Amino acid sequence: AQSVTQLDSHVSVSEGTPVLLRCNYSSSYSPSLFWYVQHPNKGLQLLLKYTSAATLVKGINGFEAEFKKSETSFHLTKPSAHMSDAAEYFCVVRATGANNLFFGTGTRLTVIP
Amino acid sequence: DGGITQSPKYLFRKEGQNVTLSCEQNLNHDAMYWYRQDPGQGLRLIYYSQIVNDFQKGDIAEGYSVSREKKESFPLTVTSAQKNPTAFYLCASSMGQGVNIQYFGAGTRLSVL
After folding, report:
1. CA within 20 to 30 Å of B83's CA: A28, A49, B6, B77, which one?
2. What is the mean pLDDT of each run of 10 residues along chain A (113 residues)?
3. In this complex, which of A42, A90, A94 lies closest to B107 when CB atoms are compared?
């Protein structure tokens, strides 16, 4: 069975400081992992994906995530937060060969000026 | 301009009424999906379709129906049997199985009058 747990429902950072959004996954098979971002009343946009290649994945807008199999984690980071990063972030897992995605409950990122 | 178009952006349903949400894609994707999003929760899969004239129930299909008569269209009907329809509905598409990315529309917000 596949699932993800986003450890924080809300994260607040000051502009220019680092961002860390935590995600742990559970998967019976080699997983594909994704981070999506959702701005208010908008659809989801893919930030980055892990598909069993390099464990450090770079995405758009300066975000990156590291796949750590020993810790079953896929945390999202960014060195310096922008005001435009304020949004909801979803960690997502899919078992290899499967169609369905399993979404975490989301982490709302607030950026303080 | 390729992408996924959902309409309408806002929709109101009266008691006992069926309503249909539109989803159209011009990405030539084989697979399409409908998700429901409630506040503070991740996305939950309602229905998905891997190919024209075929679709499968997701995790919360009760009270919903779909059709897939054309590759580019996957409308969702919220029937009167769905007792709690107020939510944000997101449509997505992907090229097919495997690690293909799902691309999302901008969503339809459904409210009950």
Report:
1. B6
2. 89 98 87 92 90 87 94 96 96 78 93 96
3. A42
